Structure to design on (118 residues):
C-alpha cells in the first residue's frame, strides 16, 4: 500500500495551493481518506477527511470555509484545495487512509511541506 502526497511548496499569505494524494495497493473506494498536518514543534492534527463515497467531508474549525477535500475514485486520488492560506497553515501535510468503518488510520503517506510566508 502506498500513499503519495504531493503539491506542497512556498505560497504567500492569502494564496492558494492544491495538494494531491495518490493511493495504490488497496480498494480505494472502501477507504476514508484524511489529511493531517504537523507544524514545527507542534503535535500532528487532523485537517479533515472525506468518506469512501465522497458524499461527506469533515474539517477542523480552523480551516472550514478555506479548505476543500475532494476525491476521484476512478483515479485513486484525493485532493486538498487550500485557499486564503495563513502563516499558521505552515506545516508538513500528510494523507492517510482508514477502512470504511475503522476507528484508526491504517496507512500513511510521507508528507509534503507547505510554507506560507511573505
Amino acid at each position: 500500500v502506498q500513499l503519495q502526497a504531493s503539491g506542497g511548496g512556498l505560497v504567500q499569505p492569502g494564496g492558494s495551493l492544491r495538494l494531491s494524494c495518490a493511493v495504490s495497493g488497496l480498494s480505494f473506494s472502501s477507504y476514508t481518506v484524511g489529511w493531517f498536518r504537523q507544524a514545527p514543534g507542534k503535535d500532528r492534527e487532523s485537517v479533515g477527511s472525506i468518506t469512501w463515497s465522497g458524499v461527506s467531508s469533515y474539517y477542523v474549525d480552523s480551516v472550514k470555509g478555506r479548505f476543500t477535500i475532494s476525491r476521484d475514485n476512478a483515479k485513486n486520488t484525493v485532493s486538498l484545495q487550500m485557499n486564503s492560506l495563513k502563516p499558521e497553515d505552515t506545516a508538513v501535510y500528510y494523507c492517510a487512509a482508514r477502512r470504511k468503518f475503522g476507528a484508526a488510520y491504517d496507512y500513511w503517506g510521507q508528507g509534503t511541506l507547505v510554507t506560507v510566508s511573505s
User: Anything to note?
Assistant: The longest strand covers residues 91-99.
